[in-house]
Amino acid sequence: MPVSVVFTADTHVPKRARDLPHSLWAAVDAADVVVHAGDWVDVALLDRLEERSARLVPVHGNNDHGALRVRLPEVARVELEGLRLAVVHETGDRTGREARCAARFPDVDVLVFGHSHIPWDTVAPVEGRATGLRLLNPGSPTDRRRQPHGTFVTAVIADGALHDVTFHPVPR
């Protein structure tokens, strides 16, 4: 049965925004699973996402401290409809990222990460695997940095694969 998923990261609420954009909240309310790749900044947003998400797969980021570090893992792993997914905040420098992450997560189909605030969707070269590791960074819905706009991602997981990956722009 297909699973609808929302991917987000680097929300930085309330430092970079008072709240998540309405379009992201609407996507959260409609999704079967919400994945947050860290940098929440405040535990209040975690509490709200836990309440509104049918299922939440969260990790902490480098700007998350105190209760967030206590409640959230550094790495999360989950299997959804046969797709092996891992979530982590930081993956290091963009140079060599695919190979480095494929070596670190050899048993994963999709790695969701954050930290850079830069939307990213690539596949690592295949080395001894049926398919390469897909790396997905949803960007930030609240702190676009040098990007033209903020972003989050929706997708569908079915039959062990990620489908209909859509980067949603968030107006300034």
UniProtKB/TrEMBL annotation:
Keywords annotated in UniProt: Metal-binding
SUPFAM superfamilies: Metallo-dependent phosphatases
Molecular function via GO: hydrolase activity; metal ion binding
Cofactor: a divalent metal cation
EC number: 3.1.4.-
Enzyme class: hydrolase
UniProt similarity note: Belongs to the metallophosphoesterase superfamily. YfcE family.
A matching Pfam family: Metallophos_2
Family annotation (InterPro entries): Calcineurin-like_PHP_lpxH, Metallo-depent_PP-like, Phosphodiesterase_MJ0936/Vps29
Lineage: Bacteria, Bacillati, Actinomycetota, Actinomycetes, Geodermatophilales
Protein name: Phosphoesterase
